[in-house]
Amino acid sequence: MAEAGFELPLLLFAGFRSLIDRLHEELALVGHPDVRPAYGFAMQAIGVGGATASDLGRRLGISKQAAGKTVDRLEALGYASRVDDAGDARRKVVRLTPRGIDALERSAEIFDRLREEWAGLLGVERLRELEGDLRVVVPSDGFRLDVAGWFGG
After folding, report:
1. Is the pLDDT score of 83 beyond 70?
2. Looking at the domain assignment, is residue 76 inside a domain?
3. 92 and 84 in contact (C-beta within 8 Å)?
4. DSSP-based three-state secondary structure for 80
C-alpha cells in the first residue's frame, strides 16, 4: 500500500521541528534561554560579515520593518548591535556580538551532537544516504532562510 502524499512534508517538518526543539532546550542549558528559532535564522542571516536591516529582510523574506523589530529584540538580548557602516555614515550595519557568536558556535556543536544521535538511530550510512537524497530534491540554488515569512503567508 502506497504512503499518503501528505505524510512526507509532515514527516520532514516533524524531523526538522524535533531537531530545532532539542537545539533550543540545550541552548537554554548553556546560557541562551532567550534564543528562539526566528532569532537563530536572523543571526545566521546576519552572519559574520554583518547586514543592514534591508539585507536581513531580504534574506529572511520579511519586511524591513519586521527585520528592524527582530534586530531590536536581538539587541535587547545582547546578541547583536547596530554600528555605523564604514562606507556610508547614513547606514547602520547589524553585527553579532560575542554573545551572538557564542550562541551560533554552541548551536553548531549541538547540531553536531544531534546528528550523531540520528546516526546512532539510523546508522551512519543510512543518514548519509538520507542527506544525499535530500540534497537531490532541494533546489540547486540552496534553501532560503525565510521560514518565518513563508509560514506567515
Report:
1. yes
2. yes
3. yes
4. strand
